[in-house]
Amino acid sequence: MNKRLGDQTVRIESKPRIISTASVVGPKEGKGNFKDYFDVILKNDHKENESFEKAETNILSTAISESIKRANLTEEKIGYIFAGDLLNQLSASSFAVRGMNVPFIGLYGACSTMTESLSIASMIMDGEFANYVIAATSSHFAASERQFRFPLEFGTQRALTSQWTVTGAGAMVLGKTGNFPYVTYVTTGKIKDYGVTDSNDMGSAMAPAAAATIYQHFKDTGRSPSYYDLIATGDLGKYGKEITEKLVKKYGYDISSNYMDCGQEIFDKSQDDTNAGGSGCGCSAVVYCGYIYKNMMNKKFKKVLLISTGALLSTTSSLQGESIPGIAHAVSIEYGD
Amino acid sequence: MNKRLGDQTVRIESKPRIISTASVVGPKEGKGNFKDYFDVILKNDHKENESFEKAETNILSTAISESIKRANLTEEKIGYIFAGDLLNQLSASSFAVRGMNVPFIGLYGACSTMTESLSIASMIMDGEFANYVIAATSSHFAASERQFRFPLEFGTQRALTSQWTVTGAGAMVLGKTGNFPYVTYVTTGKIKDYGVTDSNDMGSAMAPAAAATIYQHFKDTGRSPSYYDLIATGDLGKYGKEITEKLVKKYGYDISSNYMDCGQEIFDKSQDDTNAGGSGCGCSAVVYCGYIYKNMMNKKFKKVLLISTGALLSTTSSLQGESIPGIAHAVSIEYGD
């Protein structure tokens, strides 16, 4: 049977299991809507490190180590770590994995990295190249602000369309067997760029990519929105979510009844300055590894389509007048009938 | 039969073929030792673009398009593009692929990206997730200098251990069948950090990772150095190559008779300021896609071990006093008996 369905989707026949997850978040995320679902909530953004970048490294390595522990495994059993983050040269991931004795593949898909790494991890498992692999990613508010925008001390006012980069890391261990949620389909995104140039409105820039991938997933698999208990995009925020829902409707599918955006939901609306919602690779990572995974384990959600969304801009590309290309990768995760 | 051999190596049973390659280089590379093997040699580093970054984007998209054309294919036939580069947020790759209607996976392994993308591409082919995939990468001297070091106008003096980032891009199309060189083994690297902090001596920082991966490849496969006609590391340069050769000897393998480093060889020694040799993701990419591939096609080399090498530092990590983690991924490429 051909594993490839249509233009962008592959069937993951062996159904690799997500045998454990770990989520580590900062204090702000730890006071948000999903506070009861995170495994580790930090007391401060520094996590006793001398810089935000080192803190992010530490948060990611904690999530990876914790996911291994929760799977009752040891490092030597892990075939590959697939990880990425937002810092230049993927330094959070490289430094987090540096002390680990595991083959490492670095991935960059901006905030789409959680499903990018989970997609590759699932295909590598299905290809029988390893018994266990890890998919992980992280982001850090303060490290992102100073790299992409301004140092916090600058005290810039935030646009209403801007989003708050999640401080957090999520890691999943995939294994071959066991009674756990499993991956059934992977729909890999194409880059979409509709000319949005406002880097304070990344939800709008990413929405066309999200909508295209969601549509393609339904088209390739023959499924309809009602097949899923939950369709969750990564970090489109309030405005990007609205656009995505409309665009998907134009494609002929109504997702309104079971659609949430991790970015829009992660913070409580009373939390200062979060405006359009959360963002960053860590956003869909911790919401999946925390809230969604735990509600799959207790069978509240049996069928989930997770679509992390990334804005592939750089500060240089924006300064050179380029628009913001978006990408979104979808992974279908199911548990039971 | 288990595809996994030992700790880091997998057998690629289906032997995906490298059915075409394309190499695009700048004028300096076009005057170097491999000038007769490159497909496109640019007249200037700008390639008629308004910035070095846009030039790199254009060089990479040219290499990808050219590789598709040389394979007698069209974009719609390509299942995935796996690509990465050195620019922040992988912007050369994202913008190069933006106009292409192909599912995209961004990878970052610093200068190890050519074998990183080729490794993943080979496993995805072997897993039967696509009929054709592309592995590609690029780098650009002037874009790298100003991002990682100083603007060229600053006119800084270059250390003797420093290397000259290659302006160039290489792309390979992998297919299932045909009389072409094929991938047989992939050895994925672990991160090695021996504490080198001098970012003007990256060859020394990467050497331990290169040596560890080469050793692991021989150990996992049971092969010895003499099995290969050519063992080629990515961009260790003069000093990194010397260290690697010695370290591999300490591991019990003598590679001296058939070992070259793409970085050490790409420039003619008379070329100004290239000092320890070439570097950048583009280095092993264009040397493989040009010189090595063409000499595989004419059967001068029948068995090649390609080991691209990456230094996983960022300017931030160096400023924060971190040492330079290295990584190296090996791919065994063979043709005929």
From TrEMBL, chains A, B:
It holds the Pfam family SpoVAD. The gene is spoVAD. One of its GO terms (molecular function) is acyltransferase activity. This is Stage V sporulation protein AD.
